[in-house]
Amino acid sequence: WYQRRVRETWRNTSVMTRQGIMFKFQHLIKENMAELGANITLEQGKTLADAEGDVIRGLQIVEHACSVTSLQMGETMAGVTKDMDTYSFREPLGVCAGITPFNFPAMIPLWMFPLANVCGNTYVLKPSERDPGAAMMLAQLAMDAGLPKGVLNIIHGTHDSVNFICDNPDIKAISFVGSNQAGTHIYERGSKNGKRVQSNMAAKNHGVILPDANKENTLNQLCGAAFGAAGQRCMALSVAVMVGEARNWIPELVERAQKLKVTAGNQPGADV
User: Cβ distance 101 to 178 under 8 Å?
Assistant: First the structure.
């Protein structure tokens, strides 16, 4: 009963009010950037620079959510035929849910709940059980910005929590980012229960290096793409195909990789 009341109240909250909360939320994220980055480095392990980039990429989505006054506009067409006009409206689905991976503890939750909330939906977020701290901090900042209690809800756990989201009849849509195995399960189980499911699963990326490429720039980019965030991101480069004379650059690529500093993410000069 309480959740139904929250859902209806939030759905009927004005677009301007929801937009105002997002403006405050993005301001609070900026103010707490260092604390969020430090938590990500502590729990997930990436360097502080990478952790701050994690937050910044998510912040850009929150800033986009602030344009909801345009995003949620409908359309009209008068006189589409005799005595007929058409109107379209964008309405909230109700309860939406997100299941996020360990490698971007701030960015990927921020892909999900700000847009769902600003469009009038309530949200259930299940962050990775490996590093949920950033999601918890973001949820608190969202409430500090004015998001009412019950509009954003966080659950923790593994398989049982995922299956709860897939099976619960109140949840109308699921967003997922993560592995192929988990994503296939969520897509099949959620869809079978009549939910809208978007499942963004693992990737394997190839780089093709032609001999006319700028050598210095290419070697730097290959190192960053292959070893940044220890390769734990969906856009990591796992295969490099060196064409023709570009094969002669491989020893220099190996040398650069060997010079990368592997240490705790909060240590000065850490590369990996």
Answer: yes
Q: Which of 45, 34, 35, 43 has its CA nearest to residue 231?
A: 45
| CA 191/CA 167 separation, integer angstroms | 10
CA dist list (Å): 237 to 128, 201, 233: 23, 16, 9
pLDDT digits (tens, 9 = 90+) for 206-220: 999 999 999 999 999
Residue 98: closest CA among 165, 190, 53:
165
Please, are residues 156 and 126 in contact by the beta-carbon 8 Å criterion? yes
- Please name the residue that has the structure tokens 């709940």: 113
pLDDT tens sequence across 182-206? 999 999 999 999 999 999 998 778 9
Global pTM value: 0.92
User: What pLDDT score does 1 carry?
Assistant: 56
Rounded Cα distance between 67 and 44, Å, is 31
pLDDT digits (tens, 9 = 90+) for 145-185: 999 999 999 999 999 999 999 999 999 999 999 999 999 99
Q: Which residues, at least 6 apart from 129, have a Cβ–Cβ distance to it below 8 Å?
A: 156, 157, 158
Catalytic residues: 234
Q: How far apart are the first and last CA of the chain?
A: 49
DSSP letter for each residue of 145-170: TTPPTTTEEE---SHHHHHHHHH-TT
